[in-house]
Amino acid sequence: MSSKLPESDAVAENLDPVFISEQQFDRAAAYVRGLKRGLIDFLKKPKRVTIVNFPIELDDGSVQSFLGFRVVHNRVFGPGKGGMRYHPDVTMEEVISLAKLMTWKCALVNIPFGGAKGGVVCDTKTLTESEQRRITRRFTSELFDVIGPYKDIPAPDLYTNEQTMAWIYDTYDVLHPGFNNRPVVTGKPVEMGGACGRTEATGTGCVFAAQRFLSKALLPDRQEVAGARVAIQGFGDVGAVAAQAFYREGARIIAISDSQGGIYSEGGLDPDAVAHFKVEHGTVVGMANTLTITNAELLELDCDILLPAALGNQINAGNAHNIKARLIVEGANNPTTPQADRILGDKGIYVLPDILANAGGVTVSYYEWVQNQANEQWSPDDVMARLSDRMNTAVDTVFNRWQAFVVGEEKPAGRVLSEEPVDVPDFRTVALIIAIERVTRATLIRGIWP
Ligand code: NAD
Fold first, then answer.
1. How confident is the model over 84-111, as a mean pLDDT?
2. H/E element holding 63?
């Protein structure tokens, strides 16, 4: 699922998702002490990769084969956890890299899950609801015991939602009678054991993270979300909810986009009005009193906060030089490439990385799993208060560790992997250092590593 780059940069930058995740890992591993070479190799590779190929009868009577993946990267802290995405560009390499990201994300926010991810190569825009239901049921049957409440727990991701999770739950439950199977998936409809606030968790968590980060005064004239000019790429579960949460906090949403393009209004957009327009017209583009812009133009807007909330590799060597935002909050997974990270760092643009900024989703997924064990339902206020606490703690942990590098208390560990480490790593690298240290410690304590 890679973006198009100008040809000269495309040659220079390798956008293979596994390569990118290894580059990010190598950058962080250069600061982690006691990490043996063999352990590095172990942590880089997925624990289990499942590939299934299955036929579905389409509504017109024809039969089409679909390819599905489920990957568990690491289970040292507990069962695998990660989304299921339905997209025509899904590849095994992408799913592997996203499963790794989940390992680091869960470790960073102290959630007792390992990293997993899945996907089906399909285009939901050309499939009817009943075709999507049949794909989901058959995919779940093929996975059978690969997933499970204590093995691997799927959740929504790109082009999947609570309805998809209800179908997965129902299929798994039919295949495993006699058990409380609700914790097999999270992100279910509330009336089926879903957590209040799960749909809002990722987008709202992004805003909690942005608010906490701004309060650290690294941008002295912009210490709160209120009044910030915000541009948002993607208007789905993450982008639309984040837009509403930013708006509630008093930010001005100057631009929003979806797969068909973007809209811009210097006076500010009302996210509820944009959502209504999108329901009626299938896109945000064309809303009254807005200028139409491209997704590329949105990313390069002059703004305080840029929230990529769509696909990977959107900010890359081809456009990073033109980014004018002061803070990037990664709602999407992997929206920024390693080369872009370096360019943004040189320009003094801060990036709140995906494993920190969008961890609200897996956090409330974990709360859903806990509630399902006890057949309880926590109130929305309770869920949001817990989410806010956990996001604040995670931002504080990353920020404090980063400061230790700034004041020179911490240095690289003397290990050079793919590139020479810098004295003060960026926030992505610091977040990964913390996560890798935690997973490494648990691996050693459990005696998994000889
Ligand atoms: P979604 O399917 O609900 O929404 C995706 C949005 O992106 C849609 O508005 C779509 O129009 C837009 N989009 C698609 N292609 C685009 C393009 N080429 N340019 C611009 N916009 C485009 O998906 P989501 O759940 O909001 O997930 C978005 C991102 O956030 C993904 O990277 C996902 O992995 C990540 N994420 C999601 C969650 C979650 O809880 N849903 C949690 C963590 C991370």
1. 97
2. strand 63-74
> What is the three-class DSSP state of 50?
strand
Calpha distance 4→373 (Å, rounded): 45
Q: What is the residue whose two structure tokens read 């490494």? A: 440
Q: Which protein residues are within 6 Å of ligand 1, measured from CB?
A: 156-159, 202, 233-239, 257-259, 295, 309-311, 331-333, 358, 361
Does the active-site annotation cover 125? no
Element (H, E) at 201: helix 198-214
**Cα-only R_g, the chain:** 21
Say what the alpha-carbon torsion angle 50, 449, 356, 70 is, to the nearest 10 degrees.
0
Give the pLDDT confidence score for residue 450 in this predicted structure: 78
| Nearest Cα residue to atom 19 of ligand 1 | 259
What does the pLDDT look like over 386-405, one tens digit per residue? 999 999 999 999 999 999 99
Q: Pick the catalytic residue from 105, 117, 188, 278.
A: 117
Tens digits of residue pLDDT in 266-291: 999 999 999 999 999 999 999 999 99
Instruction: Locate the ligand 1 atom nearest the alpha carbon of residue 362 and give its number.
Output: 42
